[in-house]
C-alpha cells in the first residue's frame, strides 16, 4: 500500500465504472420503478449524473490542493492532527460498513438465485479471503485485474441487454412523467448516492501518474455509467413493466432468466452471474484496500497483512450475523445508505474543501 505504486487515469476510470455499476445493476431498477413507475429510466439519468459530477469536482479540487496526500492524510492537514485522525477513523468505519453491505449483497444474491443450500458463511469467507489477498497485493494488481475483468463484464452485460430486446415493449415505458417530476426526484436519490461513490478517487489521487486526467476521464466514466444505468432500467421496465419490476429484489436476474431464443440460446443468466461476481469481487477488493490504507495511515501500523486479516475476520462475522435477510439489506442499501453516502461522499469533502480554501487564502494574504 505504499504510494510508490502508480496507476493511469484510464485504469482508474475502468475501475470506477465497475466499482459503481456492480451494485447499481442489482438494486436500481427495482427502487427507481417503485418510486418513478414508467419514468424510472429518467430517475437514473440527469440528477445522479449532475450529483456524481459535483462530487468528482470536489474531490478533484481537494486532490489538486494536496496532490501527494490521500484523503486520510490531508484530513489531518486541514483539521489538525486530533480532529483529522478522528475523522479518518470515522471514514475507516464507514468504508468497512459499506464493504460489509457489499459482502452481504454478494451472499444474499447467490443464496437466493443459484446456491440456496450453500452456507452463507462459506460464501462470505471465500470472497473476503480473495478480496483481502487482492488488497494486500496493492492497487497496481487490482487495476490490472480490473482491465481483464472489464472485458468479461462488458461482454456479459451487453449480451443480456441485446437479447432482452426481443421481449422489450416501448409501451411499458409510457406514459412519461404521468405523476410529474417529484416521483423522479425521489427515484433518483438512491442512484445518485451510488454515482457519488466516485468520491473514492480521494483515496487514490496520489497513486495516479497523471492526476490531471482524473477530471476528464472521471466525467467520461460518469457518462458511461449513466448510459449503462438508463439501459439497465429502461430495458428491465420495458420487459416486465413497472409494477413487477418494483416488486422483486433482483430484477436483472429475472431479466436474464426470461431470455430464451428457442433451443439455441438458454440459461443466459450464467453470463449475468459471471459479470456480477467479477464486479462485486473488484468492489470488495477495492474497499478492502481503502480500509487497509486508512488503518495503516491513520494509526501508523506497518504490518499490512495483519491489518487486512483482522478486518477480514470482523467483516465476515458482522456480515454473517447482523442481518436478518436480503430484504433488510435492500432496505439499508436503498433507503438508509443514500443519506449516509451523500453526507460522507459530498458534504464532508465539500466542507473540507471550503476550510482548505479559507486557510490558503489566509496564508497568502498580506499581514
Describe this structure in words.
This protein has 367 residues and is mainly α. It has one domain: Amino acid/polyamine transporter I (Up-down Bundle). It is built from 15 helices and no strands. The longest helix has 39 residues. 49% of the residues are buried.
Outline of the structure:
This protein is mostly helical and 367 residues long. The chain is 78% helix and 0% strand. It has one domain: Amino acid/polyamine transporter I.
Largest sheet, strands/sense/barrel: none
Which CATH C-level class is it? Mainly Alpha
Overall number of domains: 1
Low-confidence stretches: none
Query: How are helices and strands ordered from N to C?
Result: HHHHHHHHHHHHHHH
List keywords for this structure.
single chain, 367 residues, mainly alpha, Amino acid/polyamine transporter I
Secondary-structure blueprint:
Layout: H1 9-36, H2 40-43, H3 46-65, H4 71-79, H5 81-113, H6 120-137, H7 139-164, H8 182-195, H9 201-204, H10 213-240, H11 242-247, H12 251-257, H13 269-299, H14 304-321, H15 326-364
